[in-house]
Design goal:
- InterPro entries: AAA+_ATPase, ABC_transporter-like_ATP-bd, ABC_transporter-like_CS, Metal_Ion_Import_ABC, P-loop_NTPase.
- It holds the Pfam family ABC_tran.
- This is ABC transporter family protein.
- Its main location: membrane.
- The strands form two sheets. This protein has a six-stranded mixed beta sheet with strand order 2-3-4-1-5-6, sandwiched between helices.
- Helix content is about 25%, strand content about 15%.
- It has a domain at about 1-50 and about 155-255: Rossmann fold, CATH 3.40.50.
- With about 260 residues, it is an alpha/beta fold.
- Residues about 205-215 and about 235-255 have low confidence and may be disordered.
Length: about 260
């Protein structure tokens, strides 16, 4: 990876896309300090809490392991926090279920709940829809957007998908050993670099995301609202409206809309 400059703010979903071997997971692991860059620097806000769902997890899904136990493999958690996290992803009823009996989508939700349970400021999700069918992918992307809206956390999302993911992100960074292009989904899908990199895969019905903000994310992670007040979050419990309306535009046969 060369010349990658990546900033993630609270309340923002940033998606890394690119072909296999482009450096998406490597970039995320450097941001997490799992890998050390040869040059440059990684800076986190002091006390930053990060929730991580890796692309591959070293768990034998045939072993006897309940969802409740899965939640505590990385450290103890109060039962109330476990239930709260499972409720946030819609699988409270699976608390005692064995992971071997979970569908692909249920297992991914359990992993998201495990990351969410420790109340992260940023969640890093590496291919969170793998092993899930098309309708399940759409539901998981909607869930990710909802978790962002409900918690105000930032999200770094890594995906090989070029279509559904566009409906669940604020900003896209296209990687191929370096940053090929970046910007809003609308801007990236219109970029010549994007079209050259993905060819025919880039042409087709896209779901382009429009998220109407009534606030601005400040460099220190706080949020300035339309009335000039500054808070730590952008969601409704602060007394400010966060317009999370998602408009999905589909247009056949064109790389952008």
């Amino acid at each position: 990876m060369r010349n990658v400059d990546l900033t993630i703010h609270r309340g923002e979903i940033v998606t890394l896309i690119g072909p296999n071997g482009a450096g998406k997971s490597t970039t995320a692991k450097m941001a997490l300090h799992i890998l050390k860059p040869d040059e440059g620097e990684i800076r986190h806000l002091k006390g930053l809490r990060i929730g991580y769902v890796p692309q591959k997890i070293n768990i034998d899904r045939t072993m006897p392991l309940s969802v409740e136990r899965l939640m505590t493999l990385t450290g103890p958690l109060p039962k109330a926090d476990i239930v709260r996290a499972l409720d946030a992803v819609g699988i409270t009823h699976l608390l005692k279920a064995e992971i071997t009996n979970l569908s692909g989508g249920e297992f991914q939700r359990a992993l998201m709940a495990r990351a969410l349970a420790r109340k992260p400021d940023i969640m890093v999700l590496d291919e969170p829809v793998q092993g899930v069918d098309f309708s399940g992918e759409a539901a998981l992307y909607e869930l990710i957007a909802k978790l962002r809206d409900d918690t105000g956390c930032g999200v770094l999302l890594i995906s090989h998908d070029l279509h559904l993911v566009m409906a669940a992100t604020d900003r896209v960074i296209c990687l191929n050993g370096h940053v090929c292009c970046s910007g809003t989904p609308r801007d990236v899908t219109a970029s010549p670099e994007y079209l050259r990199l993905f060819g025919s895969r880039a042409v087709g019905p896209l779901a382009v995301y429009e998220h109407h903000h009534d606030h601005t994310h400040l460099p220190d992670g706080r949020v300035m609202h339309a009335d000039g007040t500054v808070t730590d979050h952008c969601h409704a419990e602060d007394g400010h409206h966060h317009d999370g309306e998602h408009h999905h535009h589909h247009e056949e046969g064109k790389p952008h809309v």
